[in-house]
Automatic annotation (TrEMBL):
This is Nitroreductase. Pfam families: Nitroreductase. It comes from Bosea thiooxidans. Residues 25-193 form the Nitroreductase domain. Signal peptide: none annotated. The lineage of its organism: Bacteria, Pseudomonadati, Pseudomonadota, Alphaproteobacteria, Hyphomicrobiales.
Length: 215
């Protein structure tokens, strides 16, 4: 079918690109959340943005489990903290713990209960056809990573804070979220408003010269 390409007048292109950059520069990963609720409609709109992402063979190999139920959040906190205790007690290894030290993180994850929403992002390693036969999925981590980027940008643009949380391993999420074996949890996105007087690590982002070359 013919493409309907909604372009932008040339004079507006750079100002728009720069306005988007200015907005995205304000995003910070937040680890201390207020218990202020977030309407489900905001989460739905952001997940719909994620669902517009490109994916291998357009298979859209993702499932976003959006959790606001306090009981389920409690179970997730317990599961994550159990893994994190082992991680910080040595499973990570010294090199990894050294790399993380400047972030000030530890095995306590109260935000998993305080934040109004958790979005468990599952990758469908394979799918099923109408007859229930296995269908191979292509470029799954790339596709889910791109969709997650869209999701984080959409939530930020809507005025919400996020944390890309990755307790490892995350198998415990399958049971709590009721997901089948063909799905693997990749990221647990924490969503909400920052707690008043929330602190964040003093970090910077690399300048263009360090992240790009032009040939
Ligand atoms: N999953 C752990 C450790 C952790 C790992 C990385 I790489 C980070 O950038 C941040 C934390 C945790 O969430 O504490």
């Amino acid at each position: 079918m013919p493409l309907v390409f909604e372009g932008v007048p040339e004079a507006e292109m750079l100002p728009r690109a720069e306005a988007f950059l200015a907005r995205m520069r304000k995003r910070r990963t937040v680890r201390d959340y207020a218990d202020r609720p977030v309407p489900r409609e905001l989460i739905e709109a952001a997940v719909r943005v994620a669902g517009t992402a490109p994916s291998g063979a357009n298979q859209q190999p993702w499932t976003f489990v959006c959790i606001s139920d306090p009981e389920r959040k409690k179970l997730i906190r317990e599961g994550a903290e159990e893994e994190e205790r082992a991680f910080y007690a040595g499973r990570a290894g010294e090199e990894w713990l050294d790399a993380l030290a400047h972030l000030g993180t530890d095995d306590k994850k109260p935000f998993l209960e305080t934040a109004p929403w958790l979005i468990a992002i599952f990758a469908q390693r394979w799918g099923f056809d109408a007859q229930g036969n296995k269908v191979k999925h292509y470029y799954v981590p790339e596709s889910v990573g791109i969709a997650t980027g869209f999701l984080i940008a959409a939530l930020h643009d809507a005025g919400l804070a996020t944390l890309t949380h990755t307790p490892a391993p995350m198998n415990f999420l399958n049971q709590i979220c009721g997901r089948p074996d063909n799905e693997k949890a990749l990221i647990l996105l924490v969503v909400g408003y920052p707690k008043e007087d929330c602190l964040v690590p003093a970090i910077g982002k690399k300048p263009l010269e360090e992240i790009a070359t032009f040939l």
